[in-house]
């Protein structure tokens, strides 16, 4: 067992808090202890004395956390003997409190230990003083296939961090610690794209690496590909049912992203193609003798469109036939990251 796991087989979340990188991304299968581990480190006071921001993608998810049965600290309370709950604090915020039992009901006791917020409505929260918070746990930050996207989700994430971090680093303080947790639902995550991590994670997964860094050490990536818990779950009822090669079992057990991320990703002999047009940081090549296209990383063509809105609009107008080729399955991609970036041009 690698040093990423406890003797119990669950992930060692203490590593994320001790990691010097301000951004920690932890991706793994279902039920390997990501959320429980992170919240238990906070609940037992072994992280720091600072307050916590517990974040989810949508307001509905945060509102659900206020129900006793869906309290994200419920398992932590049972195991660690704590009594932490989320309760309404404002229209868009929930307070994280130590609780006390009042006639069989857990009630807030004392000052809040943090807040619960949703990324989707964070811009509506006015006057947030992020300087009192030391850690953000952004739970389930990659949407599942049935969930709706958030408009400009990547930018919303970066703006949220900027607001909470404020100018603490200019004051000689450590940057806000942001711990992002998720299952590997979809590599085409706007948050991963905004951090420049899609290609790095794809490469890590291909090479079987469980730890990596990015942005000069500002980001640490934990990619749990050999979880003992996932291995043990393969013979349970649900995974016997889903073990026929579907996306669900691959994500939940093998920490594999959706097969759709890798559809039409293959290596092609570039000498058979000629550069046609570049958009953003990818280039579309046209086959010299067939109606076929190959998209690769980098700006290789003389004609280049940036990703500014008007430039993208002009690209879609001038090269509409490439969208037709996409729908007709005539495009191939050098990597999943390139595929995701090119498909985003049309959204």
Describe the structure in your own words.
The chain is α/β, with parallel strands linked by helices and 347 residues long. The protein folds into 2 domains: 14-262, Rossmann fold; 270-344, no CATH class. The protein is 30% helix and 25% strand. The protein contains 13 helices and 14 strands. The strands form 2 sheets. A 9-stranded mixed beta sheet has the order 3-4-5-2-6-7-1-9-8, with helices on both faces. The chain has a 5-stranded mixed beta sheet with strand order 13-10-11-12-14. Helix 2 (34-43) packs across helix 4 (74-80). The longest helix has 13 residues, at 153-165.
- Indicate the proportion of strand residues: 15-25%
Shape label: elongated
What's the rounded overall pLDDT mean?
Answer: 88
The CATH topology of the largest domain: Rossmann fold
Q: Regions with pLDDT < 50 over 5+ consecutive residues?
A: none
CATH architect. name of the largest domain: 3-Layer(aba) Sandwich
Integer tally of domains:
2
CATH class membership of the largest domain:
Alpha Beta
Q: Can you count the helices?
A: 13
Distance between the termini: 42 Å
Q: Please give the number of β-strands.
A: 14
Sheet of most strands: 9 strands, mixed
Structure keywords:
five-stranded mixed beta sheet, elongated, Rossmann fold, 347 residues, alpha/beta, 13 helices, nine-stranded mixed beta sheet
Kindly summarize this structure in a few lines:
This protein is of the alpha/beta class and 347 residues long. It has helices at 14-18, 34-43, 59-64, 74-80, 153-165, 190-194, 198-207, 228-233, 237-242, 247-254, 309-318, 320-327, 336-344; strands at residues 23-28, 51-56, 84-88, 94-102, 105-118, 133-139, 177-182, 211-214, 219-224, 273-279, 282-287, 293-297, 304-305, 331-333.
